[in-house]
Design a protein that fits this description.
This protein is mainly alpha-helical. The chain folds into 2 domains: about 10-95, Orthogonal Bundle (Rna Polymerase Sigma Factor, Chain: A), CATH 1.10.1740; about 115-185, Arc Repressor Mutant, subunit A (Orthogonal Bundle), CATH 1.10.10. The chain is about 70% helix and about 0% strand.
């Protein structure tokens, strides 16, 4: 195992080894170390903190179940991140959150006057993330995958079982929705 996990810290290597052996203390330590990093990711995909807690728990169950497959290629945190994204997407699909998404032509994005930029400059990351959290489910999910995770519309359509056009329209509408929310702050 030492050779396989040369790209990670000694602490993580010990935690991984313990978790693979189903050591509950190692699992608890791994959870405590990474839960605060992945909870915000979970919150970005759903509309409530309770749903995000469910996704976080399911994600860690998957991490512990699949940990023996981690071979040290790439970062351990990146490997875990992908599991949490997939867990959030499975939750969204399982609960049919995107059933009301529809495909429309591209919506032109209009930027208000210079006052819009002043408002954006005055916002902090927490305020922007709160606004993103208030987006309708379809907008928020596609926005997160495209903006934060770097997925293409083709990848999003495959992950969510929607058309590429629907992905594009959800992103476009989400941007307009967010822009209107920001513009309303300047009034």
């Amino acid at each position: 195992m030492e050779e396989q996990l040369k790209n990670i810290s000694v602490e993580d290597e010990g935690l991984i080894a313990g978790c693979v052996k189903n050591d509950r203390r190692a699992q608890r330590k791994l959870y405590e170390k990474y839960a605060s990093r992945f909870f915000p990711l979970c919150v970005r995909y759903v509309s409530s903190r309770e749903q995000a807690k469910d996704i976080l728990q399911d994600g860690f169950i998957t991490v512990f179940d699949k940990l023996h497959t981690y071979k040290g290629d790439g970062s351990f945190e990146g490997w875990m991140r992908r599991i949490f994204i997939n867990t959030a997407l499975m939750y969204i699909r399982r609960n049919d959150i995107l059933k009301h998404t529809d495909e429309i032509d591209e919506v032109p994005i209009k930027v208000g006057g210079y006052e819009s930029f002043d408002v954006v400059d005055s916002l902090d990351a927490k305020q922007i993330m709160q606004m993103i959290g208030e987006m309708p489910d379809g907008f928020r999910t596609v926005f997160n995958l495209f903006v934060f995770e770097g997925f293409s519309h083709s990848e999003i359509s495959k992950e969510l079982g929607i058309t590429e056009g629907s992905s594009r329209s959800q992103l476009s509408r989400g941007r307009v929705w967010l822009q209107e929310k920001i513009n309303n702050l300047s009034k």
